[in-house]
Design goal:
This protein has 2 domains: 174 residues, Alpha-Beta Complex (Aspartate Aminotransferase, domain 1), CATH 3.90.1150; 289 residues, 3-Layer(aba) Sandwich (Aspartate Aminotransferase, domain 2). Helix content is 34%, strand content 19%. α3 packs antiparallel against α12, α5 packs across α11 and α9 runs parallel beside α10. The protein starts with a strand and ends with a helix. It binds pyridoxal-5'-phosphate (PLP). Pyridoxal-5'-phosphate (PLP) binds next to α5.
Length: 485
């Protein structure tokens, strides 16, 4: 198994007996070497054991203090151990910890829904709370299907979803079926039964045909490809197009080209398909959306003028609850809700833990803190610094093909050849090697490795997504301890 050790200007792939899938070390106190009863991703290499978390740091059982520069996978937006969130959850515990949402409403869920719909400037009118991003995507797919069914019951039924290649929308079968993550799909391919197909992602680094192609020409090309796909599957069979406004884990923090989502919206509108934005990873302030006249305190990626398109349905996750509780959301606009209201009057979907009071209360406090402390402004400010420092330090590194991102959501894509953009041969080897290096003394930093940038399998990157309340010194520390030594 290869592990990458990257020296000034030189990339060395060393042989190691550690699995690139595991990313975990062999040292540590006895308890972390005991056979695990948890079914981890790797059956042979247990993860590091965390004993506590405070602020930006995770303390491991071997005494190491790790700077959590990714908040898991862009989750811990307030860092760890926030006392206000803790108190809010305890207060909710004293009030009520669970009741079934079919029969009961709680202030926690109602207040969170109100805060979120208000944050959209009224574009979204209802919020539905579940426990994970995958479930939020499932709910979005089902809502899109039900919308069309109730809108025109007698018409050809819309049951096809168009997504993009190299996309990840979650791990449940429906979310996996629409997504284009080849490696994560392949074992389950025969049981992914949703009608879906995929077009090219908007990925300027690898997608633009040459340096001579202008961004607007690239966008036109992608628009034409989407139109052809609608025609191929039958325009009135398409229920929705789903995409991440800024691609997260699958490609590594890829913002769309200017005008791209306007083009997508045009095609969807032309054919009566809904537009679903999956903001599980890039939403809730993570990309530091810019203020506009319409949205003075934007929270959602689509509110950024660079994206500038309102979806019909959107999802949130990760930074919604900041990791304090498992919570994600699906939000829908009036056009969609109105059809259900006039139709069956119900959303045909429900889960035991939907609108869980403790989870909603935790997320409500997280979102209140983000708003009160003006943290999205800090995301914008520190994000500019993070991007600049990464470019300064690594822009000319021979193993770095691209550095991209927005707000506190940045990725470094590795290549074996900067000119041809050829990835390293061994999938994940460099990203995982960099992750492993980071976890060692004296670096003590946690970075998120990803793979599949070239074709869903080859090509790797690491993601940096620190907490929204980081300061300048902490950003400098992140870059100083990052990666390539
Ligand atoms: N959608 C996107 C864009 C994601 O990045 C993820 C997770 O990484 C999901 C959906 C699935 O979320 P979860 O892992 O919480 O189920």
């Amino acid at each position: 198994t290869a592990v990458a050790i990257v020296n000034d200007g030189n990339v060395t792939i060393e042989q190691s007996n550690r699995s690139p899938q595991s990313g975990h070390r062999t040292e540590g106190p006895v308890e972390s070497r005991e056979k695990s009863a948890v079914l981890h991703r790797s059956l042979s290499h247990d993860p590091f054991r965390v004993v506590s978390g405070e602020g930006n740091y995770l303390r491991l059982s071997n005494g190491q203090n790790i700077f959590d520069a990714t908040g898991g996978a862009a989750v811990a937006c307030l860092g760890h151990g926030n006392k206000r969130v803790r108190q809010a959850v305890m207060d909710q515990m004293d009030c009520v910890s669970y009741c079934h949402s079919l029969f009961y409403a709680t202030a926690a869920a109602e207040d969170l829904a109100r805060l979120l719909t208000t944050s959209t400037g009224g574009e979204m009118v209802r919020a539905f709370f579940v426990s994970s991003g995958s479930e939020a995507v499932e709910a979005a797919l089902k809502l899109a299907r039900q919308y069309h069914l109730e809108k025109k019951p007698g018409e050809p039924q819309r049951k096809h979803f168009i997504a993009r290649q190299q996309s990840y929308h979650g791990t449940t079968l429906g979310a996996l079926a629409v997504g284009g993550h080849v490696a994560r799909r392949e074992v389950f391919e025969p049981i992914l039964s949703i009608n879906s197909s995929r077009v090219s992602p908007c990925y300027t680094y690898r997608g633009m045909s040459s340096v001579l192609e202008h961004e607007t020409a690239y966008v036109r090309r992608l628009e034409a490809e989407l139109e052809v796909e609608f025609q191929r599957v039958g325009p009135d069979s398409v229920a929705a197009f789903i995409a991440e406004p800024v691609v997260g884990a699958a490609l590594g923090c890829v913002p769309a080209a200017k005008g791209y989502f306007q083009a997508v919206r045009r095609v969807c509108d032309r054919h009566g398909a809904l537009l679903i934005f999956d903001e599980v990873m890039c939403g809730a302030g993570r990309i530091g959306p810019e203020s506009t006249a319409r949205f003075s305190s934007p929270l959602h990626a689509w509110q950024d003028p660079h994206i500038g398109v309102v979806p019909d349905i959107m999802t949130m996750g990760k930074g919604l609850g900041g990791g304090y509780m498992p919570i994600a959301a699906m939000l829908a606009n009036e056009r969609v809700i109105d059809v259900l209201q006039r139709g069956t009057g119900a959303f045909s979907h429900g889960q035991t833990y939907q609108g869980h009071p403790l989870a909603c209360r935790a997320a409500l406090e997280v979102q209140r803190i983000i708003a009160e402390d003006d943290l999205v402004a800090n995301v914008r400010k520190q994000g500019v610094l993070l991007g600049k420092l990464l470019m300064d330090k690594l822009g000319t590194h021979p193993a770095v093909g691209d550095i991209r991102g927005r707000g506190l959501f940045w990725a470094i894509e590795f290549v074996s050849n900067k000119t041809t953009k050829e990835p390293f041969e061994s999938t994940e080897a460099v990203a995982m090697g960099v992750h492993e290096l980071g976890m060692q003394d004296p670096y003590n930093i946690s970075l998120y490795p990803g793979t599949g940038t070239v074709d869903g399998r080859r090509g790797d990157h690491i993601i940096l997504a620190p907490a929204y309340n980081v300061n300048e010194n902490e950003i400098r520390h992140v870059v100083d301890t990052t990666v390539l030594v």
